[in-house]
Amino acid sequence: MWAPTPALGLLVSFQFLTPQRWWLERLAILVPGSAATRWLLVADAVCLVALGLSSRHPWLGVPLALGAGFLVLNLLGMALTDFYLGLALFHLVVGIATAVLARRTRRLGLGLIGLAVALGALT
User: Fold this and answer.
1) Could you tell me the residue ranges of all domains in the chain?
2) What are phi and psi of 80, to 5 degrees?
3) Distance CA 32, CA 116 (A)
4) I need a surface site. Which of 3, 18, 79, 107 has the fewest CB within 10 A?
5) Helix orientation angle between 34-53 and 58-79, rounded to the nearest 10 degrees
6) 54: closest CA among 108, 110, 111?
């Protein structure tokens, strides 16, 4: 067996020769920093609890909303092949779902959308 040559390593490391990652590099501005992501996850949990409490059976709606949110987060991370990009999209999905589905806490979802976009652009 022969070892890969250093030239092959240099060839693969050039950005223009790896087109499969271009779309990810262009979307990097949307991904918030690690500290902002932690606080956005807390805001996501608050929105999911608000969605659960707005259901007919809040004692069942809250665990189902949190479980569905966890499932959607994992599916987005697998579908987009980058967990942090999936996490950024998850913040927007939870905000939109809260704004559309929760009647009394509509402003909470709109606030999460604004916060996710602002923190994604600033951090």
Assistant:
1) 43-123
2) -90, 0
3) 8
4) 3
5) 140
6) 108
